[in-house]
From TrEMBL:
InterPro entries: tRNA_splic_suSen54, tRNA_splic_suSen54_N. One of its GO terms (cellular component) is tRNA-intron endonuclease complex. The keyword 4Fe-4S does not apply. This is tRNA-splicing endonuclease subunit Sen54 N-terminal domain-containing protein. Pfam families: tRNA_int_end_N2. Keywords: tRNA processing. PANTHER family: TRNA-SPLICING ENDONUCLEASE SUBUNIT SEN54 (PTHR21027:SF1). Residues 69-149 form the tRNA-splicing endonuclease subunit Sen54 N-terminal domain. One of its GO terms (biological process) is tRNA-type intron splice site recognition and cleavage.
Length: 401
């Protein structure tokens, strides 16, 4: 009997693994202390470990719920100096505004030509700024714009659109904006990046031009390759053509450095992106693996909406719940849609391999949680470690002491 009583006694050092502290009732009474004069957010109150059915705990919970209700029911308004009124356009699923106010519009929105403007070529076309669904929803979330439904005769400027209606109208449909794409867009915008749609937003995009492909060997020429590298390649190719693979790899002889030995051991051909034949056709990419956004760093001072220039990063948004692990062919087709961007010769080894000759960032969204990973077309066979060692020793010998 004593053993049974001892088994039922709680032990202070034992922690129940099935207790989730996030399921406990939150104390929102600190919201009642907020005012316009407060300069900092007050600290959160303490939470009870478990309910014990007392009047004190019930009153505390009721006060916390009422404080949360009051905070959510607070009327939010736009300042007159920064108030920007936008009108929803159902046919294009976009919104337009006149004379937008604020620094965010310097890198958001666009003015369409007379042929592309959904409202036609009227007298106010040049003053009309069109916002894409992800742009207007992001601005609506942060309270920068006041979106209105199309005006009728009896409602003046139109009825205001709430945030719930904004999610219902702008996410989904034929525009291609999904919750995963918008969550990545809003997160990157909050971090200061300039985010633009890629040409492959709704399809494979146009075929890549010749400037996006690696130069051929004829275009590179002798001086591009370097005289020493060309000389070594010439004799190495001649020796390789006359090699009898039944003979030993290392013939008896005099070897003055290890580089000659390592070159004789390099028999397996490696993947070499710059040496591949340029392909200017449109790659057959999988719809689940296509570049979604072009990113520009916050400190990019050369960005212009009319001429953005090459982006700093290319992001492909992937739904982690609806997409399996990409195959090699899917990743290869995705990388083929990116331009040829070789690393610098003076760059360190590991950053050089990380950048590769083509690279893209995968933004995998799993139920609202986003993970970023870089995939690059790196050429490991071009980085000869033995040549680097010889070059380092030569540089050390030639440097003045």
């Amino acid at each position: 009997m004593a053993d049974a009583d001892e088994a039922e006694m709680p032990r202070g050092n034992v922690i129940e693994e099935d207790v989730d502290l996030s399921d406990e009732a939150q104390d929102f009474r600190f919201l009642s202390a907020l005012s316009s004069q407060d300069a900092k957010i007050p600290k959160r109150g303490e939470k009870d470990f478990e309910p014990h059915a007392t009047s004190l705990q019930s009153n505390t919970l009721a006060a916390s719920r009422q404080a949360m209700h009051n905070a959510l029911a607070f009327q939010r308004s736009h300042a007159p100096k920064t108030h920007t009124l936008a009108t929803y356009h159902p046919e294009s699923n976009m919104a337009y505004c006149y004379a937008p106010r604020g620094p965010l519009f310097a890198r958001m929105g666009s003015t369409f030509s007379a042929a592309d403007d959904p409202l036609g070529n009227d007298e106010r076309r040049g003053q009309r700024l069109w916002l894409l669904p992800e742009e207007v929803l992001y601005l609506l979330e942060r309270g920068t714009v006041d979106v209105r439904w199309p005006s009728e005769v009896d409602d003046g400027e139109g009825l205001p659109m709430g945030l719930q209606a904004g999610y219902a109208m702008f996410i989904g449909g034929s525009g291609g904006l999904t919750f995963e794409r918008f969550s990545v867009y809003s997160a990157l915008k909050r971090q200061g990046y300039t985010v633009l749609r890629a040409r492959t937003w709704n399809g494979p995009g146009p075929p890549a031009g010749a400037e996006d492909q690696p130069p051929s060997s004829a275009q590179q020429g002798l001086f591009k390759l370097g005289l020493s590298r060309w000389w070594r390649t010439l004799f190495w190719t001649a020796r390789e053509e006359g090699t009898d693979y039944g003979e030993p790899l290392l013939q008896p002889g005099l070897y003055r450095n290890y580089s000659e030995i390592y070159r004789r051991l390099a028999l397996i051909p490696f993947h070499d992106t710059p040496a591949m034949t340029p392909d200017i056709t449109t790659p057959a990419t999988d719809p689940a693996f296509r570049i979604t956004y072009h990113l520009y760093k916050p400190g990019n001072t050369t960005f212009k909406k009319t001429l953005p220039g090459p982006p700093d990063f290319r992001v492909a948004v992937i739904d982690g719940r609806a997409t399996l692990m990409p195959t090699l062919s899917q990743l290869s087709a995705l990388l083929d849609t990116t331009p040829h961007d070789p690393p610098k010769d003076a760059q360190q080894l590991y950053p050089k391999l990380k950048q590769g000759y083509r690279n893209v960032i995968l933004a995998v969204v799993d139920q609202g949680v986003t993970s970023y990973m870089r995939v690059s077309d790196a050429v490991f066979g071009r980085e000869k470690l033995y040549d680097r060692a010889v070059a380092a020793r030569t540089k050390a010998l030639l440097s003045p002491t």
